[in-house]
Design brief:
Elements (H helix, E strand, L loop, with lengths): L5 H13 L4 H5 L4 H14 L8 H9 L8 E2 L6 E2 H13 L8 H9 L18 H13 L8 H10 L17 H13 L8 H9 L20 H11 L8 H10 L14 E2 L6 E2 H13 L16 H9 L4
Antiparallel strand pairs: 1-2, 3-4
Helix pairs in contact: 1-3, 3-5, 3-13, 5-7, 7-9, 9-11, 11-13
């Protein structure tokens, strides 16, 4: 089995952070805060968060905040619950959540809850179980879960549960591994995992592993490194991770490392599948998947909060190392 090229992946992430005018950078301009979360969490998991300037990161994050309390994906962009969570997560990595007016941010998030318990992503009203997870995770990190109706939020999530044990984006929506993580994660944070049929859901999730060892998001789809997170974290939260072949999954992730380009120059990063182009998104979820698999040299990550365990312990439990 190949080994994790941690040094190259750190260099890859740092190089992406410096890019401003590349084609890829322009394409990701509207989700820059998400990219910051993926890249910085990768660095933290690999023990290299100290390679970036804390003050510079905090300054850039705060410039994305809107007067409403929410955050946009980049400076001057409209606020959305998705980018608001990324902002809080990035600040949590550096133990800088206290730079926020947490009451104001929490009020923005809580204001997006609908009467049926669901959450909209922003003022335009799109509803998705992703936003339920994001709201619950964000408010938990801010210690303001009391600002929403948690009972209604849980009830709405459970209304999105399907006959196969999985969850969709809305009631009746197709089960999908990404949505399942969001629903299971939200239920885990709110102490509601007992509402899940763990054997039924566990079976659906373990069926996502293909012969090559990777995981897919839905039946009959190709495997993708990112599902090493979405599926694996859910299996861990419902205590069914032993139902998949961990060694084959680790090999699949490591085989997706991009260590050379066409010109045989050392590269770095992880792709969705072997021999594809790499990006920060798949690099993060590949490293996060290896963390869940307890790969040597990678810090442990919390399967519900998607942050390093030591960060969650510090923010949620007040445990300082």
């Amino acid at each position: 089995m190949a080994e994790l090229a941690a040094r190259k992946h750190v260099q890859f992430i740092l190089s992406k952070a410096k890019e401003k005018d590349s084609y890829e950078s322009v394409l990701m301009e509207h989700i820059r805060l998400n990219g910051a979360y993926w890249g910085l969490t990768t660095l933290d998991l690999l023990g290299k968060l100290d390679t970036v300037d804390v003050n510079e990161v905090v300054s850039e994050v705060l410039q994305c905040q809107h007067e409403s309390g929410g955050f946009g994906g980049n400076i001057g962009h409209d606020p959305h619950i998705l980018y608001t969570l990324s902002a809080v997560q990035v600040l949590a990595l550096f133990d800088k959540v206290d730079v926020l007016d947490t009451e104001k941010v929490a009020n923005y998030v809580a204001g997006l809850q609908n009467e049926d318990g669901s959450f909209s992503g922003d003022m335009w009203g799109e509803v998705d179980t992703r936003f339920s997870y994001i709201a619950i995770c964000c408010l938990a990190l801010l210690h303001h879960l009391d600002k929403i109706n948690v009972e209604k939020a849980v009830y709405y999530i459970l209304s999105c549960k399907n006959h196969d044990g999985g969850f969709g984006c809305t009631p009746g929506g197709e089960s999908h591994a990404g949505q399942i993580f969001c629903c299971v994660g939200a239920l885990a944070i709110t102490g509601s995992l007992h509402c899940i049929d763990k054997d039924l859901l566990g079976w659906w999730l373990c069926e996502r592993q293909v012969k090559a060892g990777g995981l897919n998001g839905r039946p009959e789809k190709l495997p993708d490194v990112c599902y090493s997170w979405w599926v694996l974290s859910s299996l861990i939260m419902i205590d069914r991770v032993h139902w998949i072949n961990k060694e084959k999954l680790a090999k699949f992730i490591l085989d997706c490392q991009v260590l050379h380009n066409l010109f045989d120059i050392e590269n770095g990063g992880i792709s969705d599948r072997p021999d594809d182009a790499c990006d920060a998104y798949h690099t993060y979820f590949g490293v996060a998947g290896l963390s869940l698999l307890e790969y040597p040299g990678v810090k442990p990550i919390d399967p519900a909060y998607a942050l390093p365990v030591d960060v969650v312990n510090r923010i949620i439990l007040g445990i300082k190392e």
